[in-house]
Glucose 1-dehydrogenase (Granulicella aggregans), 257 residues
Amino acid sequence: PSGRLAGKTAIVTGSSSGIGQGIALRFASEGANVVIDFHGHPEAGEETRAKAEASGVKAILVKSDVSKIADTANLVEQAWSQLGGCDVLVNNAGVEKNAAFLDVTEDDYDLVLDTNLKGAFFLTQAFVKRLRDEKMRGCVINMSSVHEDMVFPNFATYCASKGGVRMLMRDLAVELGPMGIRVNNIAPGAISTPINKSLLEDKPKLDALLKNIPLGRSGSVEDVAGLAVYLASDEAAYVTGSTFVVDGGLMRNYHEQ
Ligand code: NAD
């Protein structure tokens, strides 16, 4: 296969839907072999795998709950045993839970923090251990959010998780740089995917949101995937330790107010 990612292999978590699926398919179309990870929907995972393979690359399907350390280790193991190695990890799997701070339960907290932060933390650790053992360089991309920086009332768990991912990325860029491992975040704004279906289908709420987005529309998974291809490619060889915002100007507008 030819393309900007030819010869690379990528693990993309939560890739049976939404942004992760868009990234996995775009990576495949750019020549990368991909590990499709699904949590709850095997059919959607298999459909994504088959579509990726139609681009002429190798694509495997692995079930994993990223909040379980054994599952994260298995994802890395499968990439090496079935695809012969891995260069790129996209920590994309994520959940959000709407609850006023005073109503947040321990279960809510554990679900959001364990998926969004602990998952990214330990999957990256398993990936980097393998890179170290094989003396390979690599690249980690975390799907953060504008809410790694921007407040989101009633989503304190989500903000805490994404704020954690912001500092995790900064710390690892410094700690892993000497190993030739680059670490960056993508911070999407409002992207049309299943995670925010109810908001995007609520016209008054959507209109209020669009008023705050200078480019006047919500984003698509393709808008995010293009940036992910760049960060995973050798064109970004000197890029590490930063968050790249893809939000139609939402965050800038908010900061200027
Ligand atoms: P989505 O719901 O379509 O995707 C989330 C994916 O994560 C799903 O495939 C789901 O199965 C998977 N997942 C959830 N828990 C998991 C677990 N424990 N183990 C493995 N996989 C798990 O929504 P999306 O919008 O594509 O979200 C992808 C990422 O982008 C998330 O991290 C989200 O926080 C982030 N994000 C989305 C938006 C947006 O507007 N859509 C904005 C900012 C950030």
